[in-house]
Amino acid sequence: MYRLALIFILIVIFGNINGQMPQCYSSILPSQVIVSVNPYVKLDTKDIWPLDGNGTYLQKISAKAKGKKFNFYVSLTISPYMLEAVAFNDFNGWLYTLRLTPENLVWEESKQIPSIMQPENIIADFLLVHIPMMKLQTALHGARALEKGNEKRKARIVNFDKVIRKIQYKEPIGTMWGHVIITNPRKYRLDIQTAVQ
Hints:
Elements: H1 2-17, E1 23-28, E2 32-34, E3 42-44, E4 55-65, E5 68-79, E6 82-89, E7 93-100, E8 104-109, H2 119-130, H3 133-139, E9 140-141, E10 144-149, E11 153-159, E12 163-173, E13 176-184, E14 188-196
């Protein structure tokens, strides 16, 4: 874990020295986040607060999208009224920073960010995994969420006419999960390993 934290610090420093000027925007948090290509499948952001948990985590993410594979890390900080994610990898350094609160969304991205990494996808995937099932059923519109499993291993499926997310998770770490696999059949697959920082 110490090695990963040191790599993160070096990548952020050298990524900024290499002239990666970020693209940035800040906006009022939209009342809904689109979850799929179907614009009617949405999560009401007003229904997600407060978030469960408090802490900082380091995630190693292996992604596969459009036939390409890439790996990156995310330093994730969660509190009841804030979610912050800072992503980086060994090759490009800093990739993005996302900060979500009940009032607004701040998004900064480097020019090297893969096109699949969009704030809407990141927020939707985090919420579909992280928020409890009862809260998810209240916040999710235009689709159904089903969950089965136990305290050690679970699976969630979100669908309307067909599956739009398949989520498998195991190894609980408080309110987080040590290993999560998210499959978006039309776009990407994420294999996420999480550790407490």
